């Protein structure tokens, strides 16, 4: 049962790299668990196709870094777009820096007294 589950997991296409792990390791996508044993012609083709395999792995790494950069860009954009401006006598939450135990409140209610320009 476990080898079948392992085969299924290794044949699922990764959304980041757009390849399945078996395709990156073997150079092709096996149709069944028994396709991993290569014929003589396939062994020669795989040996000659090492450059193609390396290019697929490099392409997968490139896709992974691009996806990571896109996600970081989106997250940073969401974080930076929210600028808060407060006016005088407005109630705000202030972080409690004098917290002595874990039971003390993390934020305290405060009032804006003077706005710095």
Structural account:
The protein is mostly helical and about 120 residues long. Helix content is about 50%, strand content about 10%. The protein is built from 4 helices and 2 strands. Strands 1-2 form a two-stranded antiparallel sheet. It starts with a helix and ends in a 6-residue tail after the last strand. The model has no long low-confidence stretch (mean pLDDT about 80).
Write a short abstract of this structure.
It contains 4 helices and 2 strands; from the N terminus they run ααααββ.
The largest pleated sheet is described as: 2 strands, antiparallel
Strand order of the largest sheet: 1-2
Shape: elongated
By DSSP (H or I, 4+ residues per run), the number of helices equals: 4
Q: What integer value in Å does the Rg equal?
A: 27 Å
Number of strands: 2
For the termini, the CA-CA separation is 68 Å
Please tell me the overall pLDDT.
Answer: 78
Report the β-strand fraction as a percent range: 5-15%
Helical proportion, percent range: 40-55%
Which blocks of ≥5 consecutive residues have pLDDT under 50? Answer: none
* Element-by-element helix/strand order: HHHHEE
Structural class: mainly alpha
């Amino acid at each position: 049962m476990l080898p079948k589950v392992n085969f299924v997991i290794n044949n699922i296409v990764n959304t980041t790299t757009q390849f399945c792990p078996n395709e990156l390791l073997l150079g092709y996508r096996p149709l069944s668990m028994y396709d991993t044993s290569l014929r003589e012609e396939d062994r020669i083709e795989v040996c000659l196709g090492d450059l193609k395999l390396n290019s697929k792995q490099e392409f997968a790494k490139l896709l992974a870094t691009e996806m990571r950069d896109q996600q970081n860009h989106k997250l940073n954009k969401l974080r930076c777009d929210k600028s808060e401006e407060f006016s005088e006598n407005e109630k705000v939450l202030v972080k409690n820096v004098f917290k002595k135990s874990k039971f003390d409140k993390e934020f305290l209610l405060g009032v804006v007294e003077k706005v710095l320009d």
